[in-house]
Design a protein that fits this description.
This protein is α+β, with helices and mostly antiparallel strands and 412 residues long. The protein has helices at residues 15-23, 48-51, 61-67, 78-93, 118-136, 148-157, 171-174, 188-196, 202-207, 210-217, 219-228, 261-281, 314-327, 356-375; strands at 7-12, 32-35, 43-46, 72-75, 99-103, 106-110, 140-145, 163-165, 247-258, 284-295, 300-305, 335-347, 399-400. It has three domains: 1-166, 2-Layer Sandwich (Alpha-Beta Plaits), CATH 3.30.70; 175-242, 5' to 3' exonuclease, C-terminal subdomain (DNA polymerase, domain 1, Orthogonal Bundle); 247-400, 2-Layer Sandwich (Dna Ligase, domain 1). The model is unreliable at 352-359 and 391-412 (pLDDT under 50).
């Protein structure tokens, strides 16, 4: 490698679908889609057999089945996927301790060894791929490069079961025809704006005047130019190192589109309780609440509010959501989905309040958390959630938003 580093990005192929096909021989070679429960849920991952019909992540099931009538819908099993991920990571740690779990199906590895020829690094990665295939039965696509940015780019170039080497000295040749949105960390909106400026390929981004980029993007313009040149000095973390969570969130797709304000408030409160319990279990509190709504026409909006005090209780988060609903949201169409997330996380302070009433509320919230952790979430819940019994809502159907890292592109 040109800078002495050999970084690998390993991306599992059609991960959830591949895990399901590996665990159930009946599904092998068939078009399948991994989803949540119900007919209105969206597709999380589809097998390559389904992708051949145009079935993509984020599609609703009816749309996917119009494209592929014999599509097999499989309920997702997060525990199974997490267990498989841990097995994969164990294999990777056998090759290097610099293994950074980027997501449930992606890893960065630093396999740098002194003065090894490029062919040797390729041989190491091929052995990694063979081990994963032999022990777990899954394939992956890998990119080898002198940094994480180019390694991620390389893993996308040959899928499935690919292996691509990207040399920084040849980045202009490799990237001359690749669109800018192929660069990891460069979002869709940024790519669209760059296209309007006449910057369409990665090579053009690397050659763009920094003054042009600075004018439109500020300091971020300098970073964009470096990205276009294939420059990235970020290290690969060791497997025992963990980043602090930057946000937490949960969302719920309704069984039917709803416009009843009481139902919307009940669903919002349900999400707030689930989120508050997760915050407390992880010893965190938040300064900012974000409310996401998706209309029946699939238009999605996100509103944020920072009240100026710490939030870690269901009703504390819920009250901020109500303020957002009153101040910003105009429900002109029924809602399909609602989500609540929190950002600006800090460690939750452990202190007694001077006002006795506050201490009683704190003790009550702690008791509810203990009961729900022991007997199952929503064992104790606000009485206003009883309205949801009539629509057959179960907390297990909530989609966990997960711990996320700050990215330039959101899934909005």
């Amino acid at each position: 490698m040109s800078n002495g580093r050999a970084i690998v990005h390993l991306d599992m192929d059609a991960y959830f679908a591949s895990v399901e096909q590996q665990s159930n021989p009946f599904l092998k070679g068939k078009p399948i889609a991994v989803t949540g429960r119900g007919k209105r849920t969206v597709i999380t991952t589809s097998s390559y057999e389904a992708r051949a019909y145009g079935v993509k992540t984020g599609m609703i099931v009816p749309e996917a089945k119009r494209l592929c009538p014999h599509l097999i819908q499989v309920d997702g099993n997060p525990d199974k996927y997490l267990s498989t991920t841990l097995k994969i990571r164990k294999i990777l740690i056998g090759f290097t301790d610099r293994v950074e779990t980027y997501s449930i199906d992606e890893f960065f590895l630093d396999i740098t060894l002194s003065q090894l020829p490029l062919e040797t690094y390729e041989e190491i990665v091929r052995k990694i791929k063979e081990r994963i295939k032999a022990e777990i039965g899954l394939t992956c696509s890998c990119g080898i490069a002198p940094n994480k940015l180019l390694a991620k780019l390389g893993s996308e170039l040959q899928k499935p079961d690919g292996l691509t080497v990207v040399d920084a000295d040849k980045i202009s040749e490799i990237a001359k025809d690749l669109p800018v949105d192929k660069l990891h960390g460069l979002g869709k909106k940024t790519a669209e704006f760059l296209n309007k400026l006449g910057v369409r390929t990665i090579k053009e981004l690397g050659e763009a005047p920094v003054s042009l980029l600075w004018t439109h993007f500020g300091f971020w313009g300098h970073i964009l130019k470096l990205m276009g040149q294939g420059v990235d000095n970020s290290p690969v973390s060791c497997y025992w190192q963990h980043d602090e969570p930057k946000s937490m969130g949960h969302s719920h797709t309704f069984p039917i589109d709803i416009s009843d304000p009481n139902m919307i408030k009940a669903y919002t409160l349900m999400l707030c309780q689930k989120l508050a319990e997760r915050l407390r279990n992880e010893g965190k509190a938040s300064y900012t609440v974000a409310l996401t709504i998706r209309n029946s026409d699939f238009k999605t909006f996100c509103y944020r509010k920072t009240p100026g005090y710490l939030l870690d209780t269901p009703h504390g988060i819920y009250n901020v959501c109500l303020k957002i609903l009153r101040e910003f949201v105009r429900l002109r169409k029924p809602l399909r989905l609602i989500g609540v997330s929190v950002t600006n996380l800090v460690n939750r302070p452990k202190q007694l309040y001077l006002i006795e009433e506050f201490n009683k509320v704190e003790s009550l919230n702690s008791a509810i958390l203990t009961i729900n952790n022991k007997f199952g979430e929503f064992t104790v819940k606000p009485a206003s959630l009883l309205i949801l019994r009539n629509v057959n809502v179960h907390p297990g159907n909530l989609i966990k938003g997960g711990v996320t890292k700050p990215l330039s592109q959101t899934q909005m």
